[in-house]
Design brief:
The structure holds 2 protein chains of 2 kinds. Chain A is mainly α. Chain A has one domain (7-216). Chain A is built from 11 helices and 2 strands. Chain B is α/β, with parallel strands linked by helices. Chain B has 2 domains: 3-78 and 154-231, 3-Layer(aba) Sandwich (Rossmann fold), CATH 3.40.50; 95-152. Chain B has 10 helices and 10 strands. Chain B has helices spanning 41-48, 71-77, 94-101, 108-121, 123-127, 138-150, 168-183, 195-201, 219-224, 226-232, and strands at residues 3-12, 15-25, 30-35, 56-61, 64-65, 79-82, 156-160, 188-192, 204-209, 212-218. Chain B is globular, with a radius of gyration of 17 Å. Classes of the chains: A mainly alpha, B alpha/beta. At the A-B interface, helix 6 and helix 7 of A face helix 2 and helix 3 of B. The structure holds adenosine-5'-triphosphate (ATP) and magnesium ion (MG). Residues 12, 15, 17, 35, 37-43, 84, 193 of chain B line the site of adenosine-5'-triphosphate (ATP).
Chain lengths: 290, 235
C-alpha cells in the first residue's frame, strides 16, 4: 500500500530529523556564542553512545541513568574543551577549529583503547512497538528519541527567549564585546553554550545507541550531515538548523526508501549547493553570526 | 575623585594609541574628551572599561584599582559604557536589549520599575518594545544604547560619540538627555568630535591630540581658548 509506505517513511524521517536536529542545534549554539566550528561534535555524540555502552550494556545500570550520565559526562567534556582549547584560542577561530580536530582524534583513540574497534551491541531498551497499522509501526526506542528532541529543543528555546542567561547567551552571540559591557561574562556564556551544545550531542548519542551501530568512528557520518544542515539553515541560526534538519531528514529518508542511500547522500549535498547558490547565507542566515 | 586615570598607555601591537594619559572625573557633572580622528578618545574609554589592557599606568574607581579587571567585573563596580557605534544587539527586541543592561542586577522589582522609567524617558522605545532592535533608526538605536546602559544603574556613565551620524534635531534631543542624566546624579564622561556640543554640556574638558593629552581645563575656558577655537570649533 502506497499510503502506508509513505506514512512509515514519514515516521522514519521524523525520527531522523529528531536526532539530527539535536546534534545540529548544539553545533550552531557553540558556533554562535564562541565563534568556533567544533569538528569534534560528532565524537561528542559518539562519547554519549559509549556512555550507554559502558553503563547500560556492560554494567547493567537502568537506561535512564545511562542517558542522564551520558548527558552530564559529555557536557563536562564540552566544559573541558572550552577550558583547555577554546578559551586560550578565543581570538583565533582557525586555531579553535584545528584544536577541535585534534580533540576529535583523541576521543576516537580513547574509544578504541577503551572498547576496541568492534561494533558494540547495545541490547534494546524495550521491544515494544506502536502499531498504527500492519505496515506502519514505530519502535518505542525511536519514540523516545523524538520525544527527547521535542522536549529538549523546546526547553532550549524557552531558556534562550525567557531567561536572563538566555538573553545573555544571545547577546554574546551577536556582539561579545557589547555583551561584556553589560556585565555579561563571556567566559560564563561560553561555558553554558559548550555544556548545552555538547550535552545535546551526548544525549543524541546515548538515545540512539541501541538503534545504531556504536563504534569509534560513528561520529563521522553525523558530523557531515550536521554540517550540511547548518549550512542550509544558515550558519548561526538555531531556527534554521531545526528547519533544515527536518527538511534534510525528509528528503534523505524518502530518497533512501524509494531509490537508495547513496543517491540520497548525493541529493542531500546537491540541495545544499542549490541553497548556497540561491541564498549564500542559508535559509535563515544573516550576514552576522547568530 | 570618582575616577582617576594615571599615566595610562595602550598599544595596539607595536603601535601606541594613547600614552601618558591622566584624567580625573569627580562624583558629579559632565567631563568631556574632545579631539580629532584617531586621537585616542575611544581607546581611553575602552581601557577604562577593561576592553583594552594598559601597557602603563593605573586606573582607580571609587578608590579601588580597576585596571586589569575583566570588563564584566568593571560593570559590576558601577561603570556603564555606551560604546562607539551604539552596538545594540540587532536580533534582540528593544526590551530584551534593555534587560541585558540590567544583567547583573538582582533587585527584580526595581528593574521592572526602571524599565518603565526608561520607557517614559524614551517614548519611542516604548512603542517599539517587541520590535527587533535592528529595525530602528539611528537616533532610536542611540537612545536604546543609552537606555540599556542606564538599566545598570551605573555610578559612572561613559559615552562614546553619542551624536555620531545623527540629524541636528536628534543631536539636540540626545544633548538634553545627557544633561538630564547628569542632573539625576550620574556623572558622565562624554567623548565627542562635536566639540561645540561637548564644551557646551561639560563642566571640564580634556583635549586629546594623536594619543596624548594636549590641554585640559574648565569647558568655558577651553571654549575661549584660541587653539581650541581654531582647531575644534572652526572659528
Ligand atoms: N583595533 C585597533 N587596532 C589597531 N589600531 C587601532 C585600533 N583601534 C584604534 N587604533 C588606532 O589607535 C589610535 C586611536 O584610535 P581611537 O579609536 O582611540 O581614536 P578616536 O579618538 O576614538 O578617533 P575617532 O574620533 O575617529 O573615533 C588611532 O591611531 C587608531 O588608528
Ligand atoms: Mg572613537
Amino acid at each position: 500500500m502506497m499510503v502506508e509506505l509513505l506514512a512509515q517513511t514519514g515516521l522514519n524521517a521524523i525520527y531522523a530529523a529528531s536526532y539530527i536536529s539535536l546534534i545540529a542545534v548544539g553545533l550552531v549554539l557553540i558556533f554562535g556564542v564562541m565563534g568556533v566550528i567544533n569538528f569534534a561534535h560528532g565524537e561528542l555524540y559518539m562519547a554519549g553512545a559509549y556512555a550507554v555502552v559502558a553503563l547500560y550494556a556492560d554494567l547493567g545500570f537502568p537506561f535512564l541513568v545511562a542517558i542522564a550520565a551520558g548527558l552530564v559526562f559529555v557536557g563536562m567534556l564540552g566544559l573541558a574543551m572550552e577550558r583547555a582549547l577554546f578559551r586560550p584560542l578565543r581570538d583565533n577561530p582557525l586555531g579553535g577549529l584545528v584544536a577541535s580536530i585534534g580533540f576529535l582524534m583523541v576521543l576516537q583513540a580513547l574509544a578504541v583503547m577503551g572498547f576496541g574497534v568492534r561494533m558494540e551491541h547495545v541490547p534494546p531498551v524495550t521491544q515494544e512497538v506502536i502499531v498504527f497499522s500492519d505496515k506502519v509501526r514505530l519502535a518505542v526506542p525511536r519514540l523516545y528519541v523524538i520525544l527527547a528532541a521535542l522536549v529538549l529543543l523546546s526547553a532550549l528555546w524557552l531558556f534562550l527567549k525567557k531567561t536572563r542567561f538566555g538573553w545573555a547567551l544571545r547577546a554574546s552571540a551577536q556582539d561579545p564585546e557589547a555583551a561584556a559591557l553589560q556585565g555579561i561574562s563571556i567566559t560564563q556564556t561560553a561555558r553554558i553554550a559548550m555544556f548545552i551544545g555538547a550535552g545535546l550531542a551526548g544525549i543524541a548519542g546515548a538515545l540512539t545507541a541501541p538503534l545504531v551501530s556504536v563504534n569509534p568512528h560513528m561520529g563521522h557520518s553525523v558530523i557531515v550531515t550536521a554540517f550540511i544542515v547548518i549550512i542550509v539553515g544558515g550558519v548561526g541560526s538555531l531556527e534554521g538548523a531545526v528547519v533544515a534538519s527536518v527538511a534534510y531528514a525528509f528528503v534523505h529518508t524518502f530518497v533512501t526508501t524509494f531509490w537508495d542511500g547513496v543517491i540520497a547522500d548525493i541529493v542531500g549535498l546537491s540541495l545544499m549547493l542549490v541553497v548556497l547558490i540561491v541564498r549564500p547565507t542559508g535559509l535563515f542566515g544573516t550576514a552576522d553570526r547568530a | 575623585m570618582l575616577l582617576e586615570v594615571r599615566g595610562a598607555a595602550v598599544n595596539y601591537g607595536k603601535v601606541s594609541a594613547i600614552r601618558e594619559i591622566s584624567m580625573n572625573v569627580p562624583d558629579g557633572g559632565i567631563v568631556t574628551i574632545i579631539g580629532g580622528n584617531g586621537a585616542g578618545k575611544t581607546t581611553t574609554l575602552r581601557a577604562i572599561s577593561g576592553l583594552e589592557p594598559l601597557t602603563a599606568g593605573k586606573i582607580h574607581f571609587a578608590g579601588e584599582r580597576i585596571d586589569g579587571l575583566a570588563p564584566d567585573r568593571i560593570v559590576a563596580r558601577g561603570i556603564a559604557h555606551v560604546p562607539e557605534g551604539r552596538r545594540i544587539f540587532p536580533e534582540l527586541t528593544v526590551e530584551e536589549n534593555l534587560r541585558t543592561g540590567a544583567f547583573l542586577r538582582r533587585d527584580q522589582a526595581s528593574v521592572e520599575a526602571d524599565l518603565e522609567t526608561t520607557y517614559l524617558r524614551f517614548p519611542r522605545l516604548s512603542e517599539r518594545r517587541r520590535q527587533m532592535a535592528k529595525t530602528m533608526s539611528g537616533g532610536e538605536q542611540q537612545m536604546l544604547a543609552i537606555g540599556r546602559a542606564l538599566m545598570a544603574r551605573p555610578k559612572l556613565l561613559l559615552m562614546d560619540e553619542p551624536s555620531m551620524g545623527l540629524a541636528p534635531i536628534i543631536v539636540e534631543e540626545i544633548a538634553g538627555i545627557i544633561e538630564e542624566i547628569s542632573q539625576d546624579g550620574v556623572p558622565v564622561v562624554l567623548v565627542e568630535q562635536n566639540a561645540e556640543l561637548a564644551l557646551g554640556l561639560a563642566d571640564y574638558a580634556y583635549v586629546f591630540e594623536t594619543g596624548s593629552l594636549a590641554m585640559e581645563g574648565p569647558s568655558r575656558e577651553l571654549h575661549d581658548n584660541d587653539h581650541v577655537r581654531a582647531a575644534y570649533l572652526g572659528i
